[in-house]
Amino acid sequence: MTERSADIGGSGYTLDELSDYLDRGMSPAIPAIDDNAECQAMLATLSRVAGLSRELVSRDAAENPTIDEGWLAGLLSAVGREVRAGRDIPFSSSDPTTRLTITEGAVRELVRAAGDSVDGVLVGTVAIDGDVTQPGAEVAVAVTISIVPRRSARELAEAVRERVRSELLKHTELAVGAIDVTVADVHLLPSDEPAPGAVTGDGTTTGPAPRDEEEQR
Amino acid sequence: MSADHDELALRLDEVVGEVEGVEAVFSADPTIVRSVRSLASGPERIALVRVVEDSEGLRILASVGVSDDRQAPLTARRVSDAIRAAVGGHPIAEVHVRVGRVAH
């Protein structure tokens, strides 16, 4: 069984089946999907990716038919891995009989949604490095993104970093250290005029801005 | 779960779902466990919140999706408080509120 066909969140439903469910308007309702947090995260991501990637995929398909299938398959495969609940990340509680947590999968989805909210960006992978189960332990976040360089790659990476940090501060109690944003794919469309400092399709920059891969703060 | 615990769990499904900031209540049990319980219980609704009891008291697990509008830790605390209020005087060994996703 390939990762892409593996079931999501122990629901018994594969990524393809979830995609079909989404296409049907999630009707008739399937409780095993509707009551499953990982399936809901996957559906939300599929829905968001469909909207954000529509321009990329349709235009790339017309201008470069080899890019869409592998790129999209890789993206969905990454999402399928990342929505898994994973470790429980604690929230503080003064009552020893109260345990409050957020799943690692929910945090990865949070980071992905924050990155995707930047115009011209689609998040590829999200990794959280560090012992998230220990309150106060510093964690590092690594995000890869695909971009349409409407702004410079540096500006887009910085916008992603700011939104990710803001969301993590709002919804977690993690001690967030470095947030690394790597531009992994650049969808430079022939009709586009790249902004100064934008990364071109061959990985070089067009202007004076420094290279944007592996930026770190 | 006993019949009493089933009834309490169903009530907690409603209580948790009404907490401000909660967007969804998810199954606290893996799908396979729910499937088996569903076969055993027939047409009766299976609760999403898990309630079990041991010598120390009730152990309650609620898995929720929360709104991006409010801080997830605060919503989780509200859920815990609502569960405790609904359970009343029954001894509680643990209330675990797990945020399974933040809805945008």
Tell me, briefly, the overall form of chain B: globular
| DSSP E strands of chain B, number | 4
Calculate the terminal CA-CA distance of chain B, rounded to whole Å.
Answer: 34 Å
Biggest chain pair interface: A-B, 34 and 32 residues
CATH architecture of chain B: 2-Layer Sandwich
Radius of gyration of chain A, taken over Cα atoms and rounded to an integer in Å: 18 Å
CATH superfamily of the largest domain in chain A: Cation efflux protein, cytoplasmic domain
- Report, as a whole number of angstroms, the end-to-end distance of chain A: 39 Å
Question: Can you identify the CATH superfamily of chain B?
Answer: Cation efflux protein, cytoplasmic domain
CATH topology of the largest domain in chain A: Alpha-Beta Plaits
* Mean of residue pLDDT values of chain B: 90
**What is the CATH class of the largest domain in chain A?**
Alpha Beta
CATH class wording of chain B: Alpha Beta
- Could you estimate the helical fraction of the residues of chain B in percent? 40-55%
Query: What is the number of helical segments of chain A per DSSP (H or I, 4+ residues)?
Result: 6
Q: Provide the spatial order of strands within the biggest beta sheet of chain A.
A: 3-4-5
- Strand-pairing-aware structural class of chain A: alpha+beta
Protein name (chain B): Asp23/Gls24 family envelope stress response protein
Region (Disordered) (chain A): 189-217
Protein name (chain A): Asp23/Gls24 family envelope stress response protein
Strand and helix map with partners:
The complex is a heterodimer of chains A (217) and B (104).
Chain A: H1 15-23, H2 31-34, H3 37-63, H4 67-82, E1 88-91, E2 98-103, H5 104-116, E3 121-129, E4 138-147, H6 153-171, E5 175-186
Parallel strand pairs in A: 4-5
Antiparallel strand pairs in A: 1-2, 3-4
Helix pairs in contact in A: 1-3, 3-4, 3-5, 5-6
Chain B: H1 3-17, E1 22-26, H2 31-41, E2 50-54, E3 57-67, H3 72-87, E4 92-103
Parallel strand pairs in B: 3-4
Antiparallel strand pairs in B: 1-3, 2-3
Protein name (chain B): Asp23/Gls24 family envelope stress response protein
Region (Disordered) (chain A): 189-217
Protein name (chain A): Asp23/Gls24 family envelope stress response protein
